[in-house]
Design goal:
The complex is a heterodimer of chains A (462) and B (437).
Chain A (H helix, E strand, L loop, with lengths): L9 H4 L23 E5 L5 E6 L5 E9 L12 H11 L9 H10 L3 E6 L3 E9 L3 H14 L4 H18 L3 H14 L11 H5 L3 H11 L6 E6 L3 H12 L22 E5 L5 E9 L8 H13 L4 H9 L3 E11 L2 E11 L3 H17 L4 H18 L3 H13 L4 H13 L2 H11 L6 E6 L1 H11 L2 E2 L2
Parallel strand pairs in A: 2-6, 7-11, 7-12
Antiparallel strand pairs in A: 1-2, 3-5, 3-6, 4-5, 8-10, 8-11, 9-10
Helix pairs in contact in A: 2-5, 2-8, 4-9, 10-13, 10-16, 11-12, 12-16, 12-17, 13-15
Chain B lengths: L6 E4 L5 E6 L5 E8 L13 H8 L11 H8 L3 E6 L4 E8 L3 H13 L5 H20 L12 H4 L3 H4 L6 H6 L2 H11 L5 E7 L3 H12 L22 E7 L6 E8 L6 H15 L5 H9 L3 E8 L11 E9 L5 H18 L3 H20 L1 H15 L4 H10 L3 H10 L5 E8 L15
Parallel strand pairs in B: 2-6, 7-11
Antiparallel strand pairs in B: 1-2, 3-5, 3-6, 4-5, 8-10, 8-11, 9-10
Helix pairs in contact in B: 1-4, 3-9, 10-16, 11-12, 12-16, 13-15
The chains are: A alpha+beta (462), B alpha+beta (437).
GO biological process, one term (chain B): proteolysis
InterPro entries (chain B): Metalloenz_LuxS/M16, Pept_M16_N, Peptidase_M16, Peptidase_M16_C
GO molecular function (chain B): metal ion binding; metallopeptidase activity
Chain lengths: 462, 437
């Protein structure tokens, strides 16, 4: 390399006269300031959680409307397609505002407001300078109570959605996710995260209006406000804006999922792929289960953070992957443990072997005290840093609220983590991380992968 | 808006330090920015700056391989690093009790990283997987940040693939790493930033304690990467094996963000007028009126605004349906730029962009990771961490005439146009820089 003519060798660089130095101890940790908060339900059934965090003069707003398909099966159901068109057009017009008016009014208060939908919920996410809270809430009110779904907006967004679905389905992680959901949950509506293009193309404006009237409901929904605003004042502002949002019945929650049972991994062919997506899944625990904190720590030790057995093995020791991780996904009244890794075709089978080895080892050679302590401190610290911004806290709280939980779960969780014993982690590891508890999919070039996967076993080939 | 206080000092070994105390949450951010990015890589060593970034996590005199990760995470913290055209950053965000530990960890690898053959080979494999994940196996991978520079620029530093060519990566040696470290990772070539919950005097003492005895080394003179703007429209095509739809990227040269910051910021406002929000010019025209693109975006810098020194890029990208030609998209963009150049934006359009920027900056400051990294890169690139806090006012001062002038300067006869064709579509593969295997 054409760097300077003289430089130290790597060995000289890695050595000083003084030699290695001791790692400093941790200092005294200051507690987070108590958050002032209100958690209440308005007369129309909308739950409102307001939290004051005044680090910057902004406010974050999250609205979660349960939006499950009332049908038990996605076969023959057009719910996903109608919901997708609704989410993409709900902010494109009301009696008093055009799409451009919405954007302009929000922009002038430094604000944004978006709507997205998935099989479980319709979610509005917004923010603004705190002086713009009333504007954001008024735009939200206008959309919730008076979205007109202008015909030309519906038509254009429908056409655009068809293209965006095509784009999304070209992404390897989306291909893998859809295959996994189908493999785990079959035709349960939870598995249908994205409608088919022809289903979207068939959605009419009347379909969307009807869905809005029957499903965009305050009862069962929750709105979270976090920012530089007194909680009582925030609740009054929400009540003033959204008190008139009414409707018959309650927003529909998705029905519980079939339990994930262990079994073979399904190989999905993606011709020409130079890398494979390994996606394994097993049963997890809801956040309120007394064993959840132990399972959370067991998951971290397995693959839930960088200093985990899986990452140290298949990335830092063997160089099979750039990204490997395991994480819980909370589902209606349940939870799933997910293990993800992307690996070059040549080492895919070897990476699957090592992943299964680490699953087995977690139960049989349970996490040591030092592994548990590292994971425990990470869990407590990362909860603190992830929720130290207004946006991070708002998103965390609305997700908790979707599970029926409130801020007291959040503030009480560090103590629950602190109380977990090494034995409890070992029990959770053995019960939940057994290789026999997992199934999954593997997306890659089947022609390249088949000989090794056939030899490895536990994989159904196409 | 109230400006948070900033303290800065320089250690005798040349390390520049920025302290930004904020007691609102009991967490701290620590970052080190080194003044070397992939523009400094020599020919034959594409991707080296980024590969080296990986090696800085692989152990030091005091810490075994993997210990860095464990110590940050067992302190409740998170970490990462990233390589940019003009700098490489490393950061940790942790509960404030771990401040001294974080400083120790950064100082230890600045003083004496352990670079071994085994770790180098392992991280070459990991980086190749990163490139497969983000470029080779993914539709639109590297579009436009890897694919546009070789069309717009002529010189190796500006034009080459910063992720690197597999052959170059495999040829990297431990001695290359030693030379790179000795040249570019001198304390005088770095900025240390500490933001969050701490007392400035106490933090200063800890910085001196841990970084004070990192020996000074000569700091390399930074070469100019300047090159003349194109004298004509430069065009290239690229075939993407995985992309389902065609796309187009247009790249233009913009003023030097260091010496002409106001001129540069006019383009930042222009980008907002063009593509920020449903009411913006190109969203209205291309997505909603003509309905010829799925998505369109415009911005300064291929990594974001104020992320590089001169020469930097203004870029406009769009993914469009196969029945629409890239020329139709480019022509529509040119029409909108011409209209802006002649009539200028309205005052309300500028007010929208400014208000959203004020809000965006607050939001970035509220995330400790972004605030720490933003202060550090502003101090390193511009010598002024406070630029971060001054941006909203500076953007608000940009006039409609300045935005019109910026639009006028985005000339068809001095730009690069990169056309991305899906596999199976016609088109030569004139600039396939997506890496090799």
């Amino acid at each position: 390399m054409s760097a300077p003519t003289t430089h130290r060798s790597a060995e000289e660089i890695g050595r000083t006269a003084l030699g290695p130095r001791p790692l400093p101890e941790l200092g005294e940790q200051r507690a987070a300031a108590d958050l002032s908060t209100v958690d209440t339900v308005l007369a129309n059934g909308l739950r409102v959680i307001a939290v004051r965090r005044s680090s910057v003069p902004l406010v974050e707003v999250r609205l979660r409307v349960p939006f499950g398909d009332p049908a038990a099966s996605s076969v023959g159901s057009t719910h996903a397609a109608r919901a997708e068109v609704l989410a993409n057009t709900v902010l494109t017009g009301t009696a008093s505002r055009s799409r451009v008016d919405v954007d302009t009014e929000l922009a002038l208060v430094g604000g944004e407001l978006d709507a997205v939908v998935d099989p479980e919920r319709l979610a509005f996410s917004g923010n603004a300078l705190v002086s713009g809270l009333d504007t954001v809430l008024d735009v939200l009110r206008d959309a919730l109570t008076g979205a007109t779904y202008p015909a030309e907006e519906v038509e254009r967004e429908r056409a655009r959605l068809v293209e965006r679905i095509r784009l999304a389905r070209s992404q390897p992680n989306v291909i893998a996710r859809e295959a996994l959901q189908r493999h785990l949950y079959g035709d349960h509506p939870f598995a249908k995260e994205m409608p088919e293009a022809d289903e979207v193309a068939a959605v009419t404006r009347d379909d969307v209006l009807a869905l809005h009237a029957s499903a965009v409901l305050p009862r069962g929904s929750v709105l979270v406000v976090v920012g530089d605003v007194e909680p009582d004042a925030a609740v009054r502002a929400v009540e003033g804006a959204l008190g008139g949002w009414t409707g018959e019945g309650a927003a529909v929650s998705l029905s519980p999922l079939p339990v994930v049972e262990g079994g073979d991994v399904l190989l999905v062919h993606r011709p020409g792929a130079v890398q494979s997506q390994i996606r394994l899944a097993g049963r997890g625990l809801v956040r309120t289960d007394p064993r959840y904190p132990a399972l959370q720590i067991a998951n971290l030790v397995f693959g839930g953070f960088f200093s985990s057995r899986l990452v140290e093995n298949i990335r830092e020791d063997k160089g099979y992957t750039y990204s490997a991780r395991s994480h819980p996904e909370f589902t209606p009244e349940g939870a799933t443990l997910l293990v993800d890794a992307d690996t070059a075709s040549e080492v895919t089978a070897a990476a699957l072997l090592e992943t299964r080895y680490e699953l087995g080892r977690l139960g049989l050679v349970p996490p040591s005290e030092s592994e548990v302590d590292t994971a425990r401190r990470y869990a407590i610290g990362s909860l603190l840093t992830a929720t130290s911004s207004q946006g991070g806290l708002a998103s965390f709280l609305v997700n908790l609220a979707g599970l029926g939980l409130g801020i007291e779960w959040f503030t009480g969780h560090p103590d629950r983590l602190a109380a977990v014993t090494v034995e409890q982690v070992a029990e959770a590891a053995l019960e939940f991380f057994a290789p026999s508890s997992f199934t999954g999919v593997l997306v890659g070039d089947a022609e390249l992968l088949a000989p090794q996967l056939r030899a490895l076993g536990g994989v159904s080939l196409p | 808006m109230a400006l948070p206080e900033l303290h800065r000092f320089t250690l005798p070994n040349g390390l520049r330090v920025v302290l930004a105390p904020d007691p609102s949450a009991p967490v701290v951010g620590v970052s080190v920015h080194y003044d070397v990015g992939f523009r400094s890589e020599p020919e034959g060593r594409t991707g080296f700056a980024h590969l080296f970034e990986h090696l800085m996590f692989q152990g030091s005199e005091s810490l075994e391989k993997l210990a860095h990760f464990r110590h940050v995470q067992s302190s409740g913290g998170t970490f990462n690093g990233s390589t940019h055209p003009d700098y490489t950053d490393y950061y940790q965000v942790l509960p404030s009790a771990a401040l001294e530990r974080a400083l120790f960890l950064e100082a230890d690898r600045m003083r004496a990283p352990k670079i071994t053959e085994e770790n180098l080979r392992n991280q070459i494999d990991v980086v190749k997987e990163e490139i497969r994940l983000n470029v080779l196996n993914r539709p639109y991978g590297g579009f436009p940040w890897i694919l546009l520079p070789p069309v717009l620029f002529r010189t190796f530093p500006n034009a080459h693939n910063g992720y690197g060519d597999f052959t170059d990566l495999e040829n990297a040696t431990v001695d290359d790493c030693a030379a790179f470290f000795d040249t570019y990772y001198a304390p005088g070539n770095a900025v240390l930033t500490v933001a969050g919950d701490f007392q400035p005097e106490a933090a200063k003492a800890l910085v001196e304690k841990h970084f004070g005895d990192v020996p000074a080394r000569p700091v390399p003179e930074r070469p100019s990467f300047a090159e003349a703007p194109p004298k004509g429209e430069l065009r290239a095509e690229h075939t993407d094996q995985h992309a389902p739809m065609p796309a187009v990227a247009m790249g233009y040269r913009i003023p030097d963000p260091v010496n002409e910051v106001e001129g540069y910021l006019a383009y930042l406002v222009l980008a907002g007028v063009l593509t920020d929000g449903d009411g913006s010019r190109l969203q209205q025209r291309l997505v909603h009126r003509d309905a010829i693109v799925v998505d369109v975006g415009a911005g300064c810098g291929l990594f974001g605004p104020l992320e590089a020194r001169d020469p930097d890029t203004f870029n406009i990208t769009a993914i469009h349906a196969p029945e629409v030609t890239s020329d139709q998209v480019v022509a529509a963009v040119d029409e909108e730029l011409l209209r802006l150049a002649e009539e200028g934006p309205t005052e309300q359009e500028l007010a929208k962009v400014t208000a959203r920027w004020v809000s965006t900056m607050h939001r970035e400051h509220d995330r400790l990771t972004s605030r720490t990294l933003g202060l550090g890169s502003a101090e390193l690139l511009f010598g002024r961490a406070e630029l971060l806090y001054e941006l909203p006012d500076k953007l608000a001062a940009i006039t409609t005439d300045e935005v019109a002038a910026a639009a006028k300067a985005l000339r068809p006869d001095s730009r690069a146009v990169l056309v991305l064709n899906p596999a199976g579509a016609a088109g030569d593969d004139a600039s396939d820089n997506g890496g090799t295997e």
